[in-house]
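Memo to structure team: turn this sequence into structure tokens by end of day. - J.P.
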Amino acid sequence: MGIREFPNGTTRGKAIAIGMRRSPDVSPRRLSDISPQLRQLKYLVVDEAIKEDLKWSRSMEDLTSVGLTSIEERILRITGYYGYQPWAASYKRDERSNDSPAPADSQAQAGMEAGGRGSQCCWTCSVTQLKKFFWGVVVVLGVCFSWSGSTQLAKLTFKKFDAPFTLTWFATNWNFLFFPLYYIGHVLKSAEKQSPQQRYRECCQFFGDNGLTLKAFFTKAAPFGVLWTLTNYLYLHAIKKINTTDVSVLFCCNKAFVFLLSWIVLRDRFMGVRIVAAILAIAGIVMMTYADGFHSHSVIGIALVVGSASMSALYKALFKLLLGSAKFGEAALFLSVLAVFNILFVTFIPVILYFTKVEYWSSFDAIPWGSICGFSVLLLTFNILLNFGIAITYPTLISLGIVLSVPVNAVVDHYSSDIVFNSVRVIAIVIIGLGFLLLLLPEEWDEWLIKLLTRLKVRKKEEIPEGNGDIVSGLQYKTRRTRPSMSSFTH
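Reply from structure team:
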């Protein structure tokens, strides 16, 4: 602001700004007299490098809030500017501080807003996790009862229809329904609906750039079709030899075999806990063999189940090695292709077994179609939940369903057969189950355990009662008062 010279010779104009007073220490001057000083004040700038050097100093805040303003005040006092009022500057700073919230208040307000958003996010995440856990329980129960139910139905079927390979062939043909069922789910759930031909062509890219060619069929689908048939046939043939409890618990060893093959062939990460689990699985197999006294039928049955678990592990390891990971549509198409391979290239084997009377039945009317179709439906349900249950829940929960099928089969065998649960058999079941659970641990389980223990230690330190803290502080104060000062003993 400036002042005007009026004709009547008065030195003060009528339009002086509010708060502009003459400094009592100095005589009045014109603005033209102090223009050089004002120009110097304009170029008074603190170097950025100096600011960075002083940023971590304790006096940085005082320098910015007091030091720089005091320099301005001194220059204005020296120049003798009319409108300078030290109290007015401080008043304006106070007014600004009242108008604008303090940094702590603004941080608190931002923290409250962030806390609100964080609580909403946590609430949404917790609801999502609860839904996922709920569906996980449903999937676990489905896996458990479908796997144990198919095992028990196979046992009942062999009493009237002693043809394990024919039953394997018949149940594998139902895999053809995988891709149609997937496409129905795609139509119901997906926003961009595709025709069956478009969806099929897109999923065929899983076999290569050229799609499902004859070469890809024989090199990428046929070997897995053979392994699939061997896995199911050996499992069903073992049910004829030993009870379903032993079969189901011994088949849990396939996860240990998968780890060993992945570690040796795929060069996966070495984990000591999984080596321990594999050792427990092998020890359980030996103890299960010893439980029945090494009879011929039990040894053959156990060997068949171990062979089935090995074929299952080889199937999974080769799939990961040759094909990698597959999406839901690609996995559904792959399983349907296995059914096509089964129809085209495996059908002749049941025919040969029938005419050679290895697997013979008198007439088609004598075939228990109800139990055979029930077994096929339950096995199809088990494979659907095992392959596509990951879309709605955690993979670990799905694997738990296989372990839970063991006690279900044990209860059924206890009331329907003459199985003897001696101490050796029970210990073998517990050892194999423990090894299976150890294999479900994630790769970062040790890091999570260390973090959990660290948090627990921190909480224990923070949870000291306030009353005890007051007592401790009081005792420390008393000891300080009663402790003699060393200064009194100095001369």
